[in-house]
Amino acid sequence: MRGLELPAQLIMIYVLLHLRFIGLVFSSPVFTTAMTPTPFRYIFSVMLTVCSVGIIDTESIPLIYFDEVIFIAVLCLRELMIGIALGFVSALPLYALRVAGEQIGTTMGFSMAQVMDPSTQQETSILGQMHFLSATWFYFRWNGHLLMVQALIETLKLVPPGQLALFPAGDMSLGVWLQSLFVLALRMVVPYYCALVLSDVGLGFLARTVPQMNIFVVGLPVKVMLGFMVMAAVLPLSMDFIFAHFERWIEFALNVLRFWRPL
């Protein structure tokens, strides 16, 4: 089979870079909201590609891989997976806040109140959506999107495009990622659990001392009011807590992508 000519090979190198940006833009929860039009996201990835194309060292890329269609397909899939992995792994604090909000809503008695999330077009908890939108706003406020793009540009040096390695050459530490997700969520939910458990204990004593009182009617507004009071005090602290983990998890994502280096 006749290989590609040199100009076509250079175009394929730029396409590989473009696929890496597409994987990031279409997988990160910061960019994947349904409120952002798909053409805009694609044009945004094109603009990032144009701005970053000069970073690639084309002389270090083995152009021999572009002589076969199967090799080209593997290279394209690899670049897309690298972008998806970076966008998904580095957004762990946002997912942790969503999980924490859903657990808080369940504890406060809002588990039956589901609304349509415009960012995912799925039903979700009211408090889970509120926590996620608050985290997204602070993410942009703290230039987290710029850090993510900068991290993807850094991957061009750590994991150069055009290397024939479809699967990572080691453990990607996804177990550590899931463990950290639930640990972060639990650390933000613990104050609500403590306050609401104490309210349940107090309502239990009240039910024993005043049996005529309908404790189910009284308990729901008390738990909702107490939950919002705790939220007013804890939510700002949760944002400060999440701020300390943004750069940490972007660095973690970069360490994960090291396993895509060819042996």
Order of helices and strands: HHHHEEHHHH
In total, the number of strands is 2
Provide the domain count. Answer: 1
- What percentage of residues falls in helices of 4 or more residues? 55-70%
**What general form does the structure show?**
elongated
Alpha-carbon distance between the two ends: 27 Å
Whole-number mean pLDDT: 76
Write the layout of secondary structure elements.
Blueprint: H1 6-25, H2 38-52, H3 69-89, H4 92-108, E1 114-117, E2 122-125, H5 126-141, H6 144-158, H7 174-209, H8 215-257
Antiparallel strand pairs: 1-2
Compact description:
This protein is mostly helical and 263 residues long. The chain has helices at residues 6-25, 38-52, 69-89, 92-108, 126-141, 144-158, 174-209, 215-257; strands at 114-117, 122-125.
Structure description:
The two termini are 27 Å apart. The chain contains eight helices and two strands, in the order ααααββαααα. With 263 residues, the chain is mostly helical. Helix 4 packs parallel to helix 7 and helix 5 (126-141) packs parallel to helix 8. The protein has helices spanning 6-25, 38-52, 69-89, 92-108, 126-141, 144-158, 174-209, 215-257; strands at 114-117, 122-125. 30% of the residues are buried. The protein is 70% helix and 3% strand. The radius of gyration is 24 Å and the shape is elongated. The chain has a two-stranded antiparallel sheet with strand order 1-2. It has one domain (6-260).
